[in-house]
Design goal:
Layout: E1 3-9, H1 13-23, E2 30-37, H2 40-50, E3 54-57, H3 66-76, E4 81-86, H4 91-99, E5 104-107, H5 112-123, E6 128-129, H6 154-158, H7 163-172, H8 178-185, H9 189-203, H10 208-217
Length: 221
């Protein structure tokens, strides 16, 4: 039996504890959880230190999201196999995660048998995609990714914005005007204005005061 040094990256302590208990019921696998973390900075440090065989990764981490941090993790430990185990089923998240280097992707609503199969597959250098998931739009896809719902969380809201829009949003919350932002990012103030309008449209707010309030309430920066 091969020992699989594993890191679990997830904000929910109860979920991490439950997963570790389930691992004990895998007689065919010797999964040794060498660390568990809840934010991206700790995760980067842990992966570099432990060089784990396996990473179980939720996309919604403190400080950053799992999709953005994945390429850096693979640079720190190229041999680590990564399984995304999350609540987000949107095909765009699946596609982006796989493009960023994930070896497997499944949902927390899948069974523990699915988790076991995912581990078997990725450790055997195969790709695993949970049932019902897609990397291209399913046939019933409406195409409305920017619709605001009361069920959206920080991860989903932030993923609506491009990297440039996230940079500009951070500077807006520092009370900088378009000209100041333009000078800092080496773009025109007209371009900043367009980005500002797009940000407010995507986040469903009508003015800068509400934009800043919404940003801090949802911890987007």
């Amino acid at each position: 039996m091969i020992r699989i040094d594993t890191i679990i990256a997830d904000q929910q302590v109860l979920f991490r504890d439950g997963l570790k208990l389930q691992f004990r019921n895998f007689p065919e696998l010797f999964i040794d959880v060498v660390d568990e973390v809840n934010d991206s900075e700790l995760l980067i440090s842990s992966v570099e230190t432990h060089q784990p065989s396996l990473l179980i990764l939720d996309l919604n981490l403190l400080n950053d999201d799992g999709i953005e941090v994945l390429p850096l993790l693979l640079k720190k430990s190229p041999s680590t196999k990564t399984i995304v185990l999350t609540s987000y089923a949107n095909h765009k998240y699946v596609k982006d995660a796989m493009k960023s280097g994930a070896d497997g992707y499944l949902l927390k609503s899948h069974s523990i048998a699915d988790v076991k199969q995912a581990i078997f597959d990725v450790m055997d250098n195969k790709t695993y995609l949970g049932s019902g998931l897609h990397i291209t739009p399913p046939s019933n896809y409406s195409g409305d990714d920017n619709a605001t719902t009361r069920f959206e969380d920080r991860f989903m809201i932030k993923r609506r914005l491009t990297k440039r829009e996230q940079e500009i949003l951070k500077l807006i919350t520092q009370a900088k005007n378009n000209k100041e932002i333009a000078g800092e990012l080496f773009i025109s103030d007209q371009t900043v204005g367009v980005h500002r309008k797009n940000i407010m449209r995507k986040l469903g707010v009508r003015n800068t005061v509400n934009l800043i309030k919404f940003t801090f309430e949802n911890q987007l920066v």
